[in-house]
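In the current project phase, the collection of sequences with tokenised folds has grown. One resulting record follows, to show the layout:
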Amino acid sequence: MATSCDLISISASRRGIWSKTKRNKDNGTATFGRREKCSGQASPPASAWPGRAVAESRPKSWEGRKPITVLGSTGSIGTQTLDIIAEHEDKFRVVALAAGSNVTLLADQVKRFKPQLVAIRNESLVDELKEALANVEEKPEIMTGEQGVIEAARHPDAATVVTGIVGCAGLKPTVAAIEAGKDIALANKETMIAGGPFILPLAHKHNIKFLPADSEHSAVFQCIQGLPEGALWRIILTASGGAFRFGILVPVRLFNLIDWPVEKMKEITVADALKHPIWTLGKKITIDSATLFNKGLEVIEAHYLFGAGYDNIEIVIHPQSILHSMIERQDSSVIGQLGWADMRIPLLYTMSWPERIYCSEVTWPPLDLAKLGSLTFMAPDTAKVPSVNLCYAAGRAGGTMTGVLSAANEKAVELFVNGKISYLDIFKVVELTCDKHRADLVSSPSLEDILHYDGWAREYAASLQLSSGRNPVPA
């Protein structure tokens, strides 16, 4: 794993903003800090946002309602995006939809939102989709396969593309949207985690904007609106902590599990890990929340999105999931974004930025801090959840290592859900896979390199054999 990589400390600056890793309280000036990276690693690409968000007065390419493309329209992000559009039809319209294989829901979406183009990745289902749309008067153009999704992503009328496709399957459509000059409402993690070294230079070349839809990164993005040059010092990402937090929020038999010795945590079952007390999520992200891999991966995203050095990004456990993340300025003032645990809030902002849209209190209830009573915070126990240190180390290694880490984690979670490894084995699978990749790390990867090592990581993680003690070991 990259934790054993030979690290070197260097003095460096990142656009004059993130080079200041400590404040000099004696004279009020900032000093350059120590930064770490693996020997031979190329300089990181320019970030999506250089520590501040400044709205540009760019001419609109559309008239009337803002035209939106939704990739992954039948998934969680896609359906919530379409709920927002349905509520604000005076502000938005759908020009293209792309989905995987849920024909019934996709057909309903086509009937409701009347897109010009619809793409279904599963080519074998195109006849079923055509039949479901047989009675539609204004039929959309129908395309299939990956190329169909790519065409939806670069639809000429779209101004913003919501990237709700999960995994590296979303990379090629995102690249197509960038090359077509579309702003990206970013909901696909791999775009930055795996694709950052390739995607960011491309985004700068085509002068497009990334608007983060993830709640934590949206919080940071909202907090840096209009910051002056050099004002930002630190990013503080909040984590719910997943299922294993406090007895009052989880089953009694898991009471204070976070304080149990590591050897007892091997008893955690899939059912235990899926009992998230705040969010209703899919299996993968819910287990990632329990292992804290989701937060470690978000650290890598924050690095690429906001240009933050890894020494300037911290994680804090916040069980209530009300304070979604914070920034600290050079003068020690801290600014945070608060709201109910509702993904529609950051999604709406990605679509409306830089504007704010009025929302009904009926469907968007106001935050009541008095009703909440208190908000609590704690530091993550990295000895019991090694995912955090693994992610920081992979981030510092850079290049293809972050994509390998993400892919290995995805495969490890799948193995855990299928009963092939234990909960603690998830961390071991990821570490062994990253360690194996050290010799082949590509510092400045192409898109082909990124996709290749994504596939390699999944295959290698799956090939790890189990010893009698259920511990992964290299085959």
